[in-house]
Amino acid sequence: MSQLFSPITLAGQTFANRIVVAPMCQYSAVHGDAGDWHLAHVGHLAMSGAALVVVEATAVEAIGRITHGDLGLYGDENEAALHRVLGFCRRYGSAKLGIQLAHAGRKASSQVPWAGGRALSPDQDPWPTISASAVPFAEGWHVPAEATQADLERIVTAFRRAAERSVRLGFELIELHAAHGYLLHQFLSPISNRRTDRYGGSLENRMRIPLQVAEAVREVCPAEIVLGARITGSDWIAGGIDVAEAATLASELKARGCDYVDVTSGGIAMNAKIEIGPGYQVPFADEIRRRTGIPVWSVGLIVTPEHAEEIVASGRSDMVALARTIMDEPHWPWEAARRLGAEVERPSQYARAAPKHWPGAAYKNPGQATRIAAE
Q1: Rg of the chain over CA atoms, in angstroms?
Q2: Looking at the chain, which terminus has fewer C-beta neighbours within 10 angstroms, N or C?
Q3: Bridge partners, 255 (sequence order)
C-alpha cells in the first residue's frame, strides 16, 4: 500500500492522504477581498485529489499585506468574499480546507512579483511598515518602525480576530506563518531582531511574540480544528536560525497546542546562500520530528510521486506540501495515485478520466504505450 495515500489524523481531523496543497500567494485580491481568480484557483485545487488545500498567506491587518493584491481577513468584506470561495470548494471539491494567517512586517508594502517585487515607490501608494527592529529587508527597502508594546498587543489581537473569522468560515486547519522572512520570523531571527528588551537577544525572548500569537489563536480554536505553524529550519546565514533553534521553537509550539509544523527555510535576507536541490528542506523536518515528536510537513522541490512516497514511507515527514509542483500540474495527485497503485477521489464530472474507466490512461506511461502499440 502506498504510504503517500494512507490516511492521517491530526487533532480532530482525518485526512484521506498525505498530500497538502501548500499556501501560494496569488496577489490577486482587491482590498484584501478574494475574487473570481480565487474561486477558480482554490476551487480547482480542491478537486485535485489532495487531502488538504491551504489558502494562501492571508494578512491579519491591512498593513500586514505584502502587496496591494494580498488576501486579507481583517474585515467583514474579506470574510464574506472568502465565504463565497469556500462554498464552491465544499460543493464540488473533496479536499479539506485550511488557511495560513500572516503578517508581512518589513516585507510589506512591496510590488507584486511580476512588477519587480521591490518596495513600492512613492507613486505606488506605499504604506508604513513595522518589524521587530528598524532594520530594512534590503537596500532600497522601506525602513520599518520598531514595534512598540501597543503595536505588539494590536498584532496579537489581529491574529486572534482573524482566527475567529477562520473558525466562522469553517476552516478545518489554521496555519501561522512564522517563516519566509515575514513578521513572526522577523522576531525569531537574530538577523532581523536587534532588540535589547524582553523581545530580543535570547531565543526565549525572540520566541515570545510568535508564542503569544500561537496561544491567542489556540484559545479561540475548537479542539477539532488543527493548528500548525510554518517555521524555518534554517536562515542559511551565519548567526541566524539553525535547526536546533527551530526544534526548540517547534517544541514550545507543541506545548501550546500546535498540532504540526510545516518546515521551510530562508527568506529573512537577500544574501542567504541556499543549497537548493530535490527535497532540500526534508532533513530539517526530519530532524525536528526526531527531536520533538511533533508531526511535520516537508515542502520544497518535491516533484515526483516516487520522491514524495519515499519521504513519507521512510518516516522523515508525515505529510508533503506541494506548491509550484501542483501549480505546474494541478492534477498531480491523480497521476501520483496512478503511478503508486492507489485510488484518489475525483469529482463525479471527471470520473470518466480515471484509469479504470479510460483506456487512454495507459498511454500516459510511454513504456506501456509503446508495448501496447507493438502488440
Answers
A1: 21
A2: C
A3: none
Are 229 and 175 a contacting pair, CB within 8 Å? yes
CB 26 within 8 A of CB 114: no
Residues 6+ apart with CB under 8 A from 240: 189, 190, 191, 234, 268, 272
Q: Which residues are catalytic?
A: 182
The answer to whether residue 149 scores a pLDDT higher than 50 is yes
What 3-state DSSP class applies to 369?
helix
Beta bridge partners of 321: 20, 299
Q: Residue 370's pLDDT is what?
A: 41
Q: DSSP letters of 64-117?
A: G-SSTT--B-SSHHHHHHHHHHHHHHHHH--SEEEEEEE--GGG-SB--GGGT-
CATH number for the 8-344 domain, one of 3.40.190.10, 3.20.20.80, 3.20.20.70, 2.10.109.10?
Answer: 3.20.20.70
For range 302-325, the mean pLDDT: 97
CA distance linking residue 352 with residue 228, whole number of Å: 36
* Residue 135 banded pLDDT, cuts 50, 70, 90: very high
pLDDT in tens, 173-220: 999 999 999 999 999 999 999 999 999 999 999 999 999 999 999 999
User: Does residue 365 register a pLDDT over 70?
Assistant: no
Grid cell listed for 147: 514595534
